[in-house]
Amino acid sequence: MTRYIFVTGGVVSSLGKGLASAALGALLQARGYRVRLRKFDPYLNVDPGTMSPFQHGEVYVTDDGAETDLDLGHYERFTGVPARRSDSVTAGQIYQTVIARERRGDYLGGTVQVIPHVTDAIKEAIVRDSDGADFVLVEIGGTVGDIEGLPFFESIRQFAYEQGRDRVMFVHLTLAPYIETAGELKTKPTQHSVKELRSIGIGPDLLLCRADRPIPESERRKIALFCNVREDCVIPATDVETIYEVPLSYHAHGFDTQVMRYFGIAEEPAPDLSAWEEIVKRTRSPEGEVAIAVVGKYTGLRDAYKSLFEALTHGGVANSVRVDTRWIEADELETNGSASALESVHGVLVPGGFGERGVPGKIAAVKYARTRRVPYFGICFGMQLAVIETARNVAGIAGAGSTEFGPCDDPVIGLMTEWDRNGEVERRNAGDNLGGTMRLGAYEAVLEKGSRVRSVYRQERIFERHRHRYEMNIGYRERLDDAGMRVAGLSPDGALTEIVERPDHPWFVGVQFHPELTSRPFQPHPLFASFIEAAVKQARLV
Ligand code: GLN
Questions:
Q1: CA of 470 to the centre of ligand 1 (A)
Q2: Is 514 considered catalytic here?
Q3: 366, 388, 417, 532: least buried by Cβ within 10 Å?
């Protein structure tokens, strides 16, 4: 029997609902249950693919090629369950479905309305594709009280009514702010948020209260009484040092125990959390530290590089070091010159990106890493720019560029319109909708014999996730080879370059895909583990 847990948020956004859902998923898993986690976002974009990282943070890509909310990244990292397209639902998708049905005449002349047609479509999405998991956790984006969230809240209310309250639990995340002048943690915002939730027919079964310090017993009691929630179901969610401590902290406060009690599941042996304890121990007591420069365009916004930051942390865990990630704005590198900002780092990483702004600074970073023999990791755009840098500065192809920035004499990076995928031809063309022209999702690559990446992966064939429009122009392969850059991984049909590397360099790898998306704390991605290992060696040299 599948049970459903809905996670909603109140008071303010950014309290960490995604992390809370992921951590609960991990706790249920540690008790031996199968979980699926999903995110419902009330905005009207069909997916976040067309949103700026400044608006939305990172776009997380699934194996099946969906562009989704970054919370799905937390879910995967915490539970190891690969997310799918059906785990990410937006109001835009729901309306698209309903309107398509209307155009087909499915509603047989009826008036199409938010209730019941939109709410029915939302309810379908809750249960769809859930593989008979023991628990389906659904996080509702936004905060209670938002106008656009209403159809989602109404849907989960109806869903609980129809399924029965013994199969559905409501978890609500709120904030208990500390007011300096009063010297107190305030419970009123939580009371108001729960009142708001009740006004649309949802009584929370458990409250998670974010606070920057322990919540005194008296305040917990107050929240319980005024919000009509059992006292032991008011769970403090206090700030922790690393996100991997969250499951341990929740467990210590009885979160999973209360979930078991709620569903009437006889108390079983405690969950096995040893893997989490180990990760926390390792992140807390590293044996050294390396500094990695990430040269990007959205460095002021940590959410824009969420998975990347985590993957670097995992690479550190694999090598028992702490990674000091230094975020460097490409534009600043361009104006101030690369040397000073990069002088003290042990590795340079240029991540994925779009558009021309910042390109000269990023290319300067690649050149610095290449000529100063500092480990270099280029991801997607970072690989393309590494190719351009070698073409221009080593192969002497002065006009080398990417057609992403307009026509150029030597398009070493360009648009490919056709390729083979599992024996079938996949096509795209420049005129397609912005949302539909990218190579998205997991693609296979074959690694060249004798290459560095082949020994890093210890495999000949790999699957990695993509999200890009442009590709390396394989026609330049020989000239790049002569310039010391070798193609180390290709699509099975040999048309698409997946990886380049410089064999003459201590560690210089560019990949067309996004390995950061599949790195997990318990299974650091081999490329990140290897890159940090190279940075450790570099640190001993300098
Ligand atoms: N802008 C490049 C492209 O579209 C790279 C994209 C990326 O880094 N994700 O191909």
A1: 6
A2: yes
A3: 417
Flag whether pLDDT at 340 surpasses 80.
no
Helix axes 359-371, 381-393, angle to 10 degrees: 70
Respond yes or no on whether the N-terminal peptide bond of residue 116 is cis (omega within 30° of 0): yes
Residue nearest atom 1 of ligand 1, based on CA coordinates: 354
Query: Of 89, 85, 86, 83, which Cα lies nearest the Cα of 35?
Result: 83
Query: Using an 8 Å Cβ cutoff, are 157 and 200 in contact?
Result: yes
72, 19 Cβ separation under 8 angstroms: no
d(CA 266, CA 257): 10
HEC string of 474-491 equals HHHHHHHHHCCCEEEEEC
- For residue 132, how far is its CA from the centre of ligand 1 (angstroms)? 37
The token duo for 410 is 């030597």
- Report d(CA 322, CA 313) in Å as an integer: 7
Is residue 403 lining ligand 1, measured as CB closer than 6 Å? no
Q: How many CB atoms lie within 10 A of CB 156?
A: 24
Distance (angstroms) between ligand 1 centre and the Cα of 403 equals 11
- The β-bridge relationship of strands 439-447 and 178-179 is unpaired
Amino acid letter at 343?
E
pLDDT at residue 419 is higher than 70: no
Amino acid, single-letter form, for residue 311: A
Lowest mean pLDDT among 19-28, 246-255, 334-343: 334-343
- DSSP letter for each residue of 46-92: SSGGGS-HHHH-PPEE-TT--EE-THHHHHHHHH-PPP-GGGEEEHH
Q: How large is the average pLDDT for residues 324-337?
A: 84
Please check the confidence at residue 435 and state whether its pLDDT lies above 60: no
> Does any ligand 1 atom lie closer than 6 A to the CB of residue 469?
yes
Which atom of ligand 1 lies nearest, measured to the CA of 354? 1
Using CB atoms within 10 Å of the CB of residue 474, give its burial: 0 to 12 exposed, 13 to 18 middle, 19+ buried. middle
For 142, residues 6+ apart whose C-beta sits below 8 A from its C-beta are 9, 13, 41, 42, 148, 149
H/E stretch holding 234 reads: strand 234-238
Contact 288, 321 (CB under 8 A): yes
Helices (H), 105-175: 119-127, 150-163
Closest to 2 in 3D by CA, of 134, 189, 100: 134
Instruction: Name the token pair of 44.
Output: 């009207």
Q: How many CA atoms lie within 13 A of 76 on its CB side?
A: 26
Work out the angle at residue 308's Cα, subtended by the Cα atoms of residues 304 and 311, and round it to the nearest 5 degrees.
Answer: 150
| Residue bearing the bigger pLDDT, 416 or 24 | 24
